Amino acid sequence: MVADRIHKTLDTKSEEHRAELKRLGKQAKDLPLSPNVAVLDGPSQITGINTLLSSDKTTREDFVFYFDRLAALLVERATENANFDAITIKTPPPHSHPYNGLCVSGEISAVVILRGGSILETGLRRVIPDCRTGRMLIQTSDRTGEPELHYFKMAGDISTHNKVLLLDPQMSSGGAALMAVRVLLDHGVEESKIVFVTYIAGKRGLNRLMTVFPDIHVVACRVVDDYEERWVENRYMGC
């Protein structure tokens, strides 16, 4: 009975999500990027790493190394606007001087959109070693061509967290991202506390996401005009 109830709940969420996608249509096609979208551009070092990641001559070992570097930078950017409290500490003895610093107010957690989101976890751990991490499994239906929610598990107190990072290395149509955000909202997470972290985002899908949920934040490394097949996790995992 419990399993049947879970399946019915997941099916209901998937049906509601497909209806929401149909209502969106093509209205977000030509919109400018939202100010809540941050793109890691500018430094030539990032452009150089992107060049290596995009090259077919880059070995898998090098791809993993440089992708993990960018993943850490993405997570750092995603958490830089978290709330902080002032705190005074003492430096180690023998001098023990006071130092006026900051500490994060509340908890920053993450939710991985499987399977691809798992490749961002190394970068996440380099920035937040003790980060509590949930999971969502969203797959495209062969019958409808739309994303369906098959599984999710998150912290019971996720609605109280300072920031909740959604991790997915590549977003095209935005369907999975829309569903993932909807699940977080259903669990009491405030829209403004959600940060979608991705390596590549399709512009149309990104605008689609921000049209429906204008108060979330997105951090991406690249924004592309056209849809791209999901290739990032395949290069990272070697399969």
SSE layout and pairing:
Elements: H1 2-24, E1 37-39, H2 44-54, H3 60-79, E2 84-90, E3 98-104, E4 108-114, H4 121-127, E5 133-140, E6 147-153, E7 163-167, E8 170-171, H5 175-186, E9 194-202, H6 203-212, E10 217-224, H7 232-237
Parallel strand pairs: 1-10, 4-5, 4-7, 7-9, 8-9, 9-10
Antiparallel strand pairs: 2-3, 5-6
How many beta-strand segments?
A: 10
Specify the biggest β-sheet: 8 strands, mixed
Q: Structural class, please?
A: alpha/beta
As a whole number of angstroms, the C-alpha radius of gyration is: 19 Å
Estimate the helix proportion, in percent: 25-40%
Uncertain runs are: none
Question: What's the level 1 CATH class?
Answer: Alpha Beta
Q: How many domain regions?
A: 1
Name the helix and strand elements from N-terminus to C-terminus, one letter apiece: HEHHEEEHEEEEHEHEH
**How does CATH name the architecture?**
3-Layer(aba) Sandwich
Structure description:
- The chain has 239 residues and is an alpha/beta fold.
- The protein has a single domain (2-237), classed as Rossmann fold (3-Layer(aba) Sandwich), CATH 3.40.50.
- It has helices at residues 2-24, 44-54, 60-79, 121-127, 175-186, 203-212, 232-237; strands spanning 37-39, 84-90, 98-104, 108-114, 133-140, 147-153, 163-167, 170-171, 194-202, 217-224.
- The strands form two sheets. Strands 1, 4, 5, 6, 7, 8, 9 and 10 form an eight-stranded mixed sheet that branches. Strands 2-3 form a two-stranded antiparallel sheet.
- Helix 1 packs across helix 5 and helix 2 packs across helix 3.
- The radius of gyration is 19 Å and the shape is globular.
- The two termini are 37 Å apart.
- The relative contact order is 0.18.
- The mean pLDDT is 85.
